[in-house]
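User: I'm preparing a small set of examples for a lab meeting where we compare how different chains pack in three dimensions. I only have the primary sequence for this one, and I'd like the structure in token form so I can line it up with the others. Please keep the answer compact; I'll paste it straight into my notes.
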Amino acid sequence: MTETLYRAVKTLSATEAETIHRWRPTVRLPSNVSYMVDNLWEFLRPADMPCRRHAVYASPSAELAVQCAAQLSNPLPTAYVVAITGPYRVAQLDVEDAREHADLRAVRAMVQERQKEWTELPWDTRLRLGILFAPGATKADWERVIREDAVVAGVVAELSSVSTFWASAHAPVASSRGELFFELQDDASYQLRPLAAT
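Assistant: Understood. Below is the structure token output for the 198-residue chain.
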């Protein structure tokens, strides 16, 4: 892959700049997207796309990296080139933040429309349906409840039909302000290098 990615963080000391970052085994749950939508995106994620739960967020330009990180940091962060060694998966959205994606509105509308009928379902079905809303539910979790309950399978099919998230994800475009994230593969790693050093 030839794209140049950037991250902005607090200015690194010489020692911190030597840090080699590897795939993060811990799962990061979203704070800006509902668990049901996050679970849906993970359930539908194509094999060649990065897992958002283990992803590193970056930008296609140094300026955008600083702008995005500046909202979360004081003093102003410093932009670095993300120097990746080894294979990785990367995707960029058309929206600046995943919380702006159309899936959030579509899923919310569907859930609101179905709430009354869901409350009248048998207890076992409601329990299985609840897994769809659970923090960090996996594809295997969703596949299990689909096999176990035809009603839940129908809900998942309907949710899947309204989701456009992965269809709208694409390779990085330098001129785009869309959210960009990558996931390291195998033994890959990355370091943050000063702009002047690249």
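A couple of notes for your slides: Helices lie at 14-17, 35-44, 62-70, 102-119, 123-131, 139-148, 150-162, 165-168. DSSP finds eight helices and seven strands in the chain.

User: Perfect, thanks.
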